[in-house]
Amino acid sequence: MFIKLLCFFPLFFISGSATIFWNPFFNFPVQNQNNKPSFRGENAETGYKGKWELVSQNSGVSAMHAILLPKVNKVLMYDATIWRISKFPLPPQKMPCHMVDPVNKIQDCWCHSVLFNIETSELQALKIETDTWCSSGGLTVDGNLVSTGGYRGGANTARYLSTCDNCDWKEYPTALADPRWYATQVTLPDGGFIVVGGRDAFSYEYIPREGQSNKKSIFLPFLRDTSDNINLGKQNFFRLENNLYPFVHLATDGNLFIFANNRSILFNPTANKVVRELPVLPGGSRNYPASGMSVLLPIKLYVENPKDIPADVLVCGGAQWDAFYFAETKKQLMPALKDCGRISIMNKNAVWKKEVMPSARVMGDMTILPTGDVLMINGAKTGTSAWGDAEEPNLIPVLYKSNAKRGNRFQELASGTIPRMYHSSAVLLPDGKVLVAGSNTNDGYRYDVKYPTELRVEKFSPPYLDPSLATLRQNILVDTSDKIINYGKRFSVKVKSKELRLSKLGDLKLTMYAPAFTTHGISMNQRLLILGVVDVINNVWPGIHNIIAVAPPSGKVAPPGYYLFYVVYKGVPSVGTWIQIK
Ligand SMILES: *[C@@H]1O[C@H](CO)[C@@H](O)[C@H](O)[C@H]1NC(C)=O
């Protein structure tokens, strides 16, 4: 065990104290010179820039929308029914075909939604009738999908998909009062959903109980006021919008942070009231079709939770406000935005703090990693969303180190090779890899063009999956750990470890990730909580440590449902396991 004793550096400085954690039993790969205090220790950094793997040549449908479904560990992927084509014919057990037009006998015999097995890349066919094009979604308390909106006949639809073996879609085409095309669906503290915005829908509504229909929606002037037009004269307007797929994050006090175009509000959805407007984020437009990206940064919880829990939002990239006009009418592609703004939304006098990314990005995805860092991936360096309106795919993912000092937060990672622009997606997997799929800048399934409809699926391994860090990975013992946790209550997680002891003060971090519904560069309901650790009881059995943690205090902080639970040690996450909070 003492091999390579000479080449490791056994001192690790611990947050805000003089304690020194000395572990002579481990060959730590790299000297950690960065000993400034940070939340729960330092992350292992090796210079490894990550790795790409191609895991499937054919996802059947191009993954315009994607979400990891709890328990079954399958990624649900779907695009649109409008083209009546995909790369996956409906199998015999899903017959008869969908009758598109009974008069002219036009049928659609293709799958438009599939379950993708993340271990084997096998596909399972699903059958959908209403058009999910540019729709929204989220998971129920029981881990089932609720999808809303889409195109034409799908626009007012609520759809349900359970994770049982032979389950398929159930669709209710009149559930919503307003058409929701490019709307955002958000989970509320009680596990219900709100749907905000969409094309020509300056309103919001709550998803009704399954099978019921909303009579009316609630007007939200903010959405009208953030919708851009260009006045071409003579009553002729070019519609830019720049506020579709608004970024909506549930704040830690139960209000909603709603960002559209370059403005944002904190909104109380129960009182139908704007709590306050936050400052404008200058620099350009951030929402569809200008399509920047946004995350609610990891929320830190402690054993004792304070009344006000801070929350930061990050908004990055996008396009200048009139870029869509130039792209659509002149095929003149403007450079994408290169800046980010970060703001503490719970702070009454909050201001945006700007940061500059290593490269410009429009239509990118931001995926929160189990460590609390954020992966920026996919997208383009010029243009906007919409058919053929972008060029220069941004193939280089960037790691945003949420916890580092401003100026030290960005790191460029290993370049991909497959352009992932309009209609691509990124999904965090239990093993800490990120599944990357989709990209279709064509109105239909086209393969004879510069950017063909993309059906290949890849996995990107972030730097923490450096093989030289493998021994740092803790192994959660699912059978003897709590899998259902209750608000504010303690729970226990047992890990099998190569460390002789773990310390709650040291490099240990417990995180909970709410699976995101990702489409068009927006990751709805994405959320990572960093939990308070009460105690670690080492060696309850040789090599097995029992970690006692506190569950999040309420549904405002963590809406009820399934989360991927990770034990992160020295910046290296375990394989995540599913826990349900209620
Ligand atoms: C915010 O966006 C609007 C609409 O695009 C624009 O007119 C305004 O100048 C922008 N404000 C700032 C401060 O950038």
The N- to C-terminal Cα distance equals 43 Å
Q: Using the coordinates above, name the CATH class of the largest domain.
A: Mainly Beta
Which structural class do the helices and strands define? mainly beta
- Principal-axis shape: globular
Uncertain residue ranges: 1-41
Q: How many beta-strand elements?
A: 49
Average pLDDT confidence is 92
How much helix, percentage-wise, in residues? under 10%
**CATH H-level homologous superfamily name of the largest domain:** Galactose oxidase/kelch, beta-propeller
Structurally, how many domains make up the residues?
2
Query: Could you tell me the strand content as a percent range?
Result: 35-45%
By CATH, the topology of the largest domain is Methylamine Dehydrogenase, Chain H
Bound molecules: 2-acetamido-2-deoxy-beta-D-glucopyranose
Second-tier CATH architecture of the largest domain: 7 Propeller
Cα-atom radius of gyration: 23 Å
**Alpha plus pi helix count:** 2
Please give the largest β-sheet: 7 strands, mixed
Please specify the SSE layout and strand pairing.
Elements: E1 11-13, E2 20-22, E3 51-56, E4 65-69, E5 74-78, E6 98-101, E7 106-108, E8 113-117, E9 123-126, E10 136-139, E11 145-148, E12 158-161, E13 170-172, E14 184-187, E15 193-196, E16 203-206, E17 218-219, H1 221-225, E18 228-231, E19 237-241, E20 247-250, E21 256-260, E22 263-268, E23 273-278, E24 293-296, E25 299-300, E26 312-316, H2 323-330, E27 339-344, E28 353-356, E29 365-368, E30 374-377, E31 380-383, E32 390-393, E33 398-400, E34 410-412, E35 424-428, E36 434-438, E37 457-461, E38 475-476, E39 484-485, E40 490-496, E41 508-514, E42 517-519, E43 522-524, E44 527-530, E45 532-541, E46 544-550, E47 561-569, E48 572-573, E49 577-581
Parallel strand pairs: 25-44, 39-49
Antiparallel strand pairs: 1-2, 3-37, 4-5, 4-42, 5-8, 6-7, 8-9, 10-11, 11-12, 12-13, 14-15, 15-16, 16-17, 18-19, 20-21, 21-22, 22-23, 24-26, 26-27, 27-28, 29-30, 30-33, 31-32, 33-34, 35-36, 36-37, 38-40, 40-46, 41-44, 41-47, 42-43, 45-46, 47-48, 47-49
This protein binds 2-acetamido-2-deoxy-beta-D-glucopyranose.
